Amino acid sequence: MTRELHVDASQLENHAMKVIEVLGPGCSNCQKLEANAREAVAQAGVAAEIRHVTDYAEIASRGVMSTPGLVIDGTVVSVGKVPTSWTIAAWLRE
Q1: Is 2 within a domain?
Q2: C-alpha span between 73 and 9 (Å, rounded)
Q3: Which among 86, 89, 73, 62 has a CA at the least distance from the CA of 24?
Q4: Planar angle of CA 65, 68, 74, nearest 5 degrees
Q5: Catalytic status, residue 27
């Protein structure tokens, strides 16, 4: 049996998976930022993939010279600090 699924394109935009990247070498602040990002995903109720980028050349190529950095869907939203999970959740909802 074959089922067809019809989805309105606007529904896909609202439920598109976010890509969150934590930029940093893995220090305690980087780990805290990753934990806050994971908590923010739950708070915002969004689907997200969280990646941790540790390669300094990759981090620098994003214009991040002070870690940790946070990137959401390709946009650097935070550099050199650890935003709260609530702040990150607000960014995810934008």
Answers
A1: no
A2: 19
A3: 62
A4: 80
A5: yes
pLDDT tens over the chain, length 94 residues: 334 444 344 444 456 899 999 999 999 999 999 999 999 999 999 999 999 999 999 999 999 999 999 999 999 999 999 999 999 999 999 8
Residue 66 in domain: yes
In this structure, what CATH number is given to the domain that contains residue 66?
A: 3.40.30.10
Give the C-alpha separation, 10 to 85, whole Å. Answer: 27
- For residue 30, indicate whether it is catalytic: yes
Q: Which of 22, 30, 37, 40 is catalytic?
A: 30
Which residue, among 50, 56, 59, 57, has the nearest Cα to 31 in the 3D structure? 50
Annotated active-site residue in 16, 17, 27, 42: 27
